[in-house]
Amino acid sequence: MRLFGRGEIRRWRDAHIAMARAVLQQAAADLVETFDVDLSQADWQDGLIEQTRFVGARIAPVVRQVADPLARRVIEEAATALQPIAWHHLQWQPMPVDANLMRDMMEELGDWAAAGGAALTGLVRGAATGLPIAGGLGRGGAPGDWMRLRAEARLRAKVHAYVYATVVQGPKGRPALLEHVIELLRDAARHAQPL
What we know:
The chain is mainly alpha-helical.
């Protein structure tokens, strides 16, 4: 047994946790940016009435399609890097899809709390484009524009919250993909035997 083997395993763990954070946080940011463009195309039914269904049908599959292969790749690269320094079989263990995550999150947050900072984004955008602000009309904006912006802000906030909870940090008792990867890496470091 090598004298400094545990130190190498700790360095391996820390390096791959940092890589997982960088990769998956960037993926979450890229997803949010991509969805922001798509959300402006959502119709009234998506924005006002069926937000949870919209996220479940149009957002969730894309999030999984993008984030899962990245997480798997991080684990595969970590397993390859672990082989020369320790004995342990590390392999990807996919997370089951939490079909109720969006619904439960929105029940906890509520419509107005979920709108949070995104409502401010809608206000600033309204000010910049002359749309109605605070009940008054801007430069030629129609009253329906304000309603559309509010609905878009709520939907945008829910999508952002869903991406964050699915990829970066989940609600209590429901780990996100990044948290799952970090736990796999920590578990491997605990159980790995230095060569």
